[in-house]
Amino acid sequence: MNKLLTPWGAALDREHPLPEYPRPQMKRSSYVNLNGVWRYAITRESIRPLDWQGEIVVPFSPESILSGVERQLKSDEFLWYERSVTLPEGFNAGRVLLHFGAVDQIADVWWNGEAVAHHEGGYLPFSVDITQHLHDGANTLLLRVRDSLVNTPHAYGKQSYKRGGIWYTATSGIWQAVWLESVPEEHIRRLELTPDFDGRVLRWKAECSSPMSVHATVLMDGTVIAQSCFDGEGICRILPEYFHPWTPEDPFLYTVVFEAGRDRVESYFAMRKFGIAEYHGHSVFALNGKPYFHNGLLDQGYWSDGLYTAPDDEALIYDIQTAKRLGFNMLRKHIKIEPLRWYYHCDRLGMLVWQDLVSGGGRYDPLVVSTPLFTGIHLDDRLYPLFGRSDKRGREQYLSDLEQTVRHLYNSPCIALWVPFNEGWGQFDANSAADLLRSLDPTRLVDHASGWHDQGGGDVKSYHAYFKPLKLRGDRRRVLALTEFGGYSLPIEGHIHGKKFGYRMYDSAADWQKDYVKLYEEQVLPLIETEGLSATVYTELSDVEDELNGLLTFDRRVCKAEDRKLRPLNEKLKFM
Prior knowledge:
The structure is a single chain. It contains 9 helices and 34 strands. The radius of gyration is 24 Å and the shape is globular. It is of the alpha/beta class and 576 residues long. Strand 25, helix 2 (313-325) and strand 26 form a beta-alpha-beta unit. The strands form 9 sheets. The protein has an 8-stranded parallel sheet with strand order 29-28-27-26-25-34-31-30, covered by helices on one side. Strands 3-2-4-10-7-8 form a 6-stranded antiparallel sheet, with no helix packed on it.
């Protein structure tokens, strides 16, 4: 198996990887990045190891090349991390918070020998107040992790202990940034920003450590254009001369600053509205009240050297900019939650995002999952055993994760649509999940069951098509979307990770690109007028391990597609 390094991974600074501020939607001036070289050990015992086995580069999982370990954590093992931390002089402004972007899957944290946190779930952030445990000089941070893909109620996505095809190397441990910030005793804990496009106001809520008066200031290119002061929530009205809608073609962001007592937090928002409009008698996606075609790519967020973790912030930017350069305006983030910086770059660069929730549940039966593909029959997803969802605890955990995911990503303007289930993987009660999503976030649309096992709910009639010519029919009540298709595979020698897998394999780049263009021109484009097709999600942005369906190679060193062919083609995918 080839060890493929991305350009950014080859230039990695082991001592200071991913140093950027991790949370652009809620930024403070206090910040200590804890990414870098830590000590690690892998044991069979749950007690702290006496000896360390070596160094690991955080935040890369031990399975990745960039971690320096390249070792798969097994379900019966413990992964230990340790490092020393000395706070800068004057850093403590009242309280000191320790933040973890994501740790897969069950984490216990000690600070100076005192247990401070226990967290379960591998995709969402957690924080802990460590103020009372701080020492002068050097402090010791210790972390213990367990991770299992077997008999777990937790989400695991496309991770597998036996990778191959559409299943990928399992990742464990810390895989997003670790950092410290200091806040005053009384401070803002969370922001919720809701742009009211029609009313031309920003509606905001600030959760605080105690009841406080919060002052909000909106700035446009550095100029104050609106202010408000309320106890915890309020509105900022945007006057007509300052009203600037956000679109992928013109991704304008406003700055907003919140002040409460001595605390000051900087954030941003965009004025945009997602909905449904009518086009030639069909229901179609709308942006800011007008029909808008979502022309996207499936984006799995895997990297040849960092696996779940991008090797550099510039690597995240490269993927988004490449998709835009080729003429796409949407990425479907497939069964993964990215670091907040990825969404920030989509916000500022202008890229719509369809956000999948991360799948879980028991073993998936291929015959059950793929029944609609071969028979056209859509099974009732209340039959929990068929979908690997017999475990009530796992179903409850999924719904908890759903709510936390919405809270976590709510402020990202780029997110246009939620996808709770994909191809029947761990699917259950999809209509109820769609209703729950609407109640938590009425500002976005829902594709309740992407591809297969349609339960008739949500806002989207969703199709996946890889093996047959496209014959789609809208139901006029919901938006018609081709949510996965293509998968044309072109191996590039020297950039292949392992075995070769794809839905349709090519040896010639010319033939691959010719058939790609033919697929769109002969099968996709006519559906816009005849059936009101409103979105496409081509598989996929980049190769992933054995899977060679990408427009980019797994190491991001080669773009297989030519701009001069794809961009003019993509410009045709719109409502006239």
